[in-house]
Amino acid sequence: MPRRRGRGLLRRLGRLLAYGYLAAVLTFAGFIVYGLVSPYLGRLLSHPESKPPEPVTVRGGGVVIVDQFHHTDPSFTEEASRLLKSMGYRVRIFKDDEVTVSFYKRLPTLGAGLYVLRVHAGVLNTSMETHLFTSEEYDKSSHWIEQLTDQVAKGMVNPLGGEKPVFTVGPFFVEMSMQGNFRGATIILSSCLGLYNHRLAKAFIEKGAGAFISWDEKVTLPHTDRAALRLLELLLANRMTISEAVSRVMEEVGVDPEYGAILRFYPRKAGDLRVE
Q1: Which residues pair with 173 in a beta bridge?
Q2: What is the average pLDDT across 71-94?
Q3: Of 12, 91, 130, 156, which has fewest CB within 10 angstroms of its CB?
Q4: CA dihedral 266, 269, 270, 276 (to 10 degrees)
């Protein structure tokens, strides 16, 4: 009898362990499923008849400059800030280590009418999509839902330079994890490959941006700095349309002498817009 009781206890204990293991697996799977679908819940539960958000203006929302290169060369942001403030615009600057995955998540909630992103960008070899670099060191255990859903990836500006990899954010991240709506704001990505194809630009437009301006190839930092400063002046001081301003920049500043990059905008209908 004691031997039978012992065997019964072992069987019950085995069943309890099996049930516990199954519950843990199901709970973990539930977290993964929730992480995969939660970014879409807002869209699915939103009312299609609800009014679109009120458009933002540069005069009302100001300008946000995101400068990942500020620690090595602050000259662009300093000059752009002086120019914009001389025209009466409010300027907010986010730089260097402030450029994290969490920062990008809340970018639309800053409510600016114009965003100037002076950050490194590159194209993933796997998806051929343009990703924006953060200054946040890559950790495979961080932002794991975003990693599973291809919203973020590991990137290095100079793979041969021995630097540590950082997180990058791509089009899926803009669509799924950025909070709020850009409310018609203009995005100037003063960096490489922003319009290598339309995938990243389209994601920003679907998140509510009115226009996306960037380069179609790699570009040197001094060249894009000169072009972006002139672009700001033409858009805000001369009140040119986006198409007129981009064309004038290409006439005056030209293609990048090293990589042949051309400044472009997306979508085509944004060419008639004025940044106000």
Answers
A1: none
A2: 99
A3: 12
A4: -170
